[in-house]
Write a structure and sequence with these properties.
about 85% helix; mainly alpha; 3 helices; about 0% strand
Length: about 100
């Protein structure tokens, strides 16, 4: 019986500690990431997404029209140019 009371007290104490730790964690303000991280993610997506999209679209057009490899080469080239233009525009934005 005495051991059971100690166990209940210990459990209550641990629950109280967990609640206090959770309240302390919830009280801390969440700091948003600086704009530079968002800009870096956008640049990465441009560098990966644009050529990948152009390559997939070029491959599909080549397969459909049987013009291999011309549509693939043209669309990858255009998508790289567009990606770098977009990266240039992103770099003009002010990081705060």
């Amino acid at each position: 019986m005495l051991a059971e009371l100690r166990h209940d007290d210990d459990l209550d104490h641990r629950i109280a500690q967990a609640k206090a730790a959770d309240e302390a964690r919830a009280a801390k303000p969440v700091t948003p990431q600086p704009k530079g991280y968002a800009q870096g993610s956008r640049v990465l997506m441009e560098l990966i997404g644009a050529p990948l999209g152009g390559g997939i679209l070029g491959y599909a057009i080549d397969h459909w029209l049987d013009t291999s490899p011309w549509a693939l080469l043209i669309l990858i080239t255009l998508s790289i140019i567009v990606a770098f233009r977009n990266i240039y525009r992103i770099s003009k934005e002010r990081a705060e």
